[in-house]
Write the C-alpha cells for this entry.
Amino acid sequence: MTVLERPDKTIVDRRKSGPNQDLRRTLRKTRDKLAQMGRPDREFDLELLALHANALISSIAAVPLLIILTAFAGFSAGFDTNIVIWAVIANLLYVGMGYLSKRFLGQKEEADPRRWRMIFLVAHGVAGFSWTYFAISSCTACGPDTALFFKASVLLIAIAATATICYAIRFSILAAFTLPVAVFAIVNFDTTPNTLLAIAMVVCALLFFSFVAERLQKSSIASIAYRAENIALIAELEMAKSISDEARRRAEDANLAKSRFLASMSHELRTPLNAILGFSEAITSEMLGPIGNESYRSYVGDIHASGKHLLNLINEILDLSRIEAGKYELREEALRLTHVAEDCMALVRMRAAQKQITVKPVFQDGLPRLLADEKAVRQIILNMLSNAIKFTPNGGQVELKVGWTASGGQYVTVKDNGPGIPEDEIPVVLAAFGQGSIAIKSAEQGTGLGLPIVQALLAMHGGAFTLKSKLREGTEAIAMFPAARVMQPLPAEPVDTRGARPPRRMVA
C-alpha cells in the first residue's frame, strides 16, 4: 500500500463480518450436528464408504493370513478337514469384498451411497455365514473345553479385527457376527462354568466392539467434517487472496498513474503560479508606477501570499508524486550532516524568533562525511524543523541533534516541548494528508505532506524515520541514515624522510 492510500474502515469491517463469518458458522454447525447425530449427507456418506473400501483393500492380505493361521492351528489341534474348507470359503468371500471395494472406488463420484452401503452390509452378512460355519465345526481329536475356548478366542479376534477395519459403516460388525455368535452360544450352551464363561466372553466382545466401532465412526465423521471445513476455508482464502491481489494491483496502477500525471504536470502548474507571483510582486513594488488605491495594494499582497502558499503546496505534492512515480533521482555527493543542519537552522531562525522559540544545536564532533543528496537532506531537516516550530508554543525550545547511531550510521533528531501527539494518532500523522487533532485545532494548518516526504526521501537513502510523542511532553522526530552511507576517511600515504612520497609501483 502506498503512502497516499488508506483503507476504508467500513469496507474492512464488512469483509470481516461478511460471508467468511457465515461460512464458518454454517460449517461449524454442520460439523457439530454430524458429530453428535451421526447422520452425514451424501458427500460424507461417500467419504465414509471410501474410507471403508480403502480399509478393506488394505486388509485384504492380513485377514486371509489370519484365517489361514486359524485353519492351520485348528487342524493341528484336531479339527477335521471341514476347517480347511471353511478357510477357503472365507478367503474367497473376503477377496470378493476387496473386489467390491475397488469397484466402488472406481465409480465413487456417481455412486449411490445408500445402495453401496446396503451392498457392503450384505457382503459382511455373507461373510458372517463363514464364521457361522466355523462356530459349528467340531473337533474329534481334542477335548470339548479346548475346542470351545479355541473357537471363542478366534471369534473374539475376528470381532476385534472387524471392528478396527469396518467401523466406517454402521452395523457392519453386527451384520457379520450376530449370527455366528448366536449359533455359537446355542450350539455350545451348557450350564458348566467354562462354557458359560466362553459364551459370555464372546457376547460381551461383540457388544463392546460394536460400541467401539460406533465411537470410531463418529470420530471419522467429525474428522471428515473438519477436513471439509478446512478445504472450504482454504478455497475461500485463495479466492479472497486472488481478489485482494487484483484489487491491490489495480489500486497500485491507479496510484502510479496519478503520480505520473502529477509529476508530468510540474511545468504546467508552476508556470502560471510563477507569473502570478512575479506580476503581483512587481505591482507591490510599484515598478511601473504608483498604486493609486491602498485597497488595491492590500489585494495584491493577498494575491502574492496566496500564490506563494499555493506554490508551496503544489511543490510538496509534486515532490511526493515524483518520489512515488520513481522519477526522483538522487544526486549523491559527500556532505557533512552538521553543515546542512546549520544552514537549515539559519533558514528557520527568523520564523523561530517571531515566536520567541530557542533552537538549540547539539552536534557530535568528528562526524565524517555522508554520501547523500544534499537537496533531499536539506528538505528532510527543514520539514522536521518547520513542524517543530509550527506546533511549539511561544517561548518554547526546539533541540536539533546530529550524531552517531548504534549501528554506525548518522542521525538527525528534532525535539520540541510542544503539546505532543496522542499515540493512536501517530500513524495518521505519518500518512499523506494526515493531520492530528492538535493540528486541526491549531491556527497553523499544513498540507500534511511534510513527514510523508521525509519518510520517502529517507527510504530512498536506505534510512528510516521514527516519530515519538506523548501528550504535554513534546515530540521527537528521528531521521537515521545507514552506516553504508558514512564515508570513512582514507589513511594517509606514507612519506619518506626526505619529505617526498615514494614512487608508486605499477601493478600489472
Observations:
- Residues 1-19, 504-508 have pLDDT under 50 and may be disordered.
- DSSP finds 16 helices and seven strands in the chain.
- The CA atoms of residues 21 and 302 lie 57 Å apart.
- The two ends are 52 Å apart (CA to CA).
